[in-house]
Amino acid sequence: LLLEHEEEQPQYSNIPQSKQGSVPLEAAMLQPLPMEHLFSAPAVQYLLPILGETPSGEPPDPKKCSPREYLEFYIFPVLLPGLAALLQEAEKEKCFEGKRTKFIPSDFLTEWLYNKNPKRKDESFTELFSIPFVKDWLKDHPRPPIPLSLLLSEEEASILIQSFWRGYRVRCDSEIQELRQWQKKLREEKHITEVVKKFWTKQEAK
């Protein structure tokens, strides 16, 4: 049995033999293995289908075909273009430039696949939150609101920051500080808040 096992093992001619005929473990590990021994099947079998291209020939019965045929004829022709569109949209949303972004890849891909479904080719575009199964899911699994920092563009955020800074610098002025102190004292002495509240109460009663 040992002799049969040794005959079945692949022979590597590029591994140096020692004088006794045995190979040291370190020498065997450092020698590169021939690539033809790493792949038992031709490289052609590992090629991915062309983007969005349906294989030639008659489409097989989806209920009787093999998993590979089902993927090549019914899944990849739609899924691969969707993934390509997803990467393009992610680049537009600058997802590769920062860690945080409002872009949700699964949302985009769900909307894209739903609208690109061949069964809906004559129907109008449907937004993500108008898709029936999405609406049903969100009823039981509501999402938290997206932070304002992710919704604002860089230009809008810069305008808000600059506006806050200018207001802060104005409030630090000595004359403005004096005016604010006078207003605060006036509100406390004259009970301005209570007066305004009573005024609106009378107005609503009318």
UniProtKB/TrEMBL annotation:
InterPro entries: IQ_motif_EF-hand-BS, IQCK. It comes from the Eukaryota. It holds the Pfam family IQ. Signal peptide: none annotated. Coiled coil: none annotated. PANTHER family: IQ DOMAIN-CONTAINING PROTEIN K (PTHR34927:SF1). This is IQCK protein. The lineage of its organism: Eukaryota, Metazoa, Chordata, Craniata, Vertebrata. The gene is Iqck.
